[in-house]
Amino acid sequence: xxxxxxxxxxxxxxxxxxxxxxxxxLIEITKNKxxxxxxxxxxxxxxxxxxxxxEIFGKELNRCKDKFYISDNTDIKxxxxxxxxxxxxxITSSNKRLINLFIDENQFTLNKIQKNILRGILKSxxxxxxxxxxxxxxxxVRDCFTDERITIEDIDLFNNFKSGQNIIARSVNIQGMxxxxxxxxxxxxENLHIIVDNIKSIYEKQNKDFKNIKExxxxxxxxxxxxxxxxxxxxxxxxxxxxNVNNELNDNEEENIQKEDSIDICSxxxxxxxEKYLQKSIDLWKAFTDMRKSIKGSENGWAAAIEYYxxxxxxxxxxxxxxxxxxxxxxxxxxxxxxxxxxx
Length: 344
Prior knowledge:
Blueprint: H1 21-52, H2 58-68, H3 76-89, H4 98-106, H5 112-122, E1 126-134, E2 139-143, E3 149-152, E4 166-174, E5 177-187, H6 189-206, H7 213-219, H8 222-232, H9 245-249, E6 258-259, H10 266-272, H11 275-290, E7 295-296, H12 299-313, H13 320-327, H14 331-343
């Protein structure tokens, strides 16, 4: 511990009490406030996590995975983001989120502080932010969709992010203090513009159903999560692929497309897959069609799933994002077809 009358370690030549003492006290107070807010949040998050593991939510969890994941090559960050999406954003078959079901079931046992925290979580959503200003005790970030400016006092977090940088994050107000929960993902300017423009174009087609873009994002957070997964599954230089509105928002329509038994997948495979995998791919498709009276979905969707299946079994490092791009389909479509092949 530095004595008040000792020389300040910053090298100014002044005594500590005349130099950095007050600044360091302010930093310490801010850190303690942040730790307190994060502790309150973590306590509630743990309770909802425990609630979400009830057996009755097993089917909901599987439904959520189908909606959320664009790849089965996930990592710890994607798994954490998925968990947040499941407990706070995913709409269950009862037309409610898990957090709402938790509140309904525990409304008489929650104290005032816990209720305030839950209200803060309900108002939060994952979004894209530009870091406009940083200081020793706070940072100011701007929501790139709503232009709302938020003061974040989690000073340690911004050791990795400087003014002018972009992040994907979720801000929650806990007892008057805004904290960023889960992971903060760095975002290039190019990816920021692609994501914002793509999601705004989707919003414009649906804005009659929502009061504003904030409400739209609260109800369609999976759009941002899908972009986030693209970034996490690749390196920092990766340029995200815009979401296909028809594939991502109206995916059920694909289930109604009936194809004849004689779908010619073989010619598509011959034009795309390497020679060493071709025969195994054709054999897999023939075995699959022999067990089916009818086939649903596009030819490219099935061809992509076959290539992914064969290469995964061969031990190749391959992602659903890569294969989807090759066949010009959505990763979600590839995921569905792959699961059907595995289940056969």
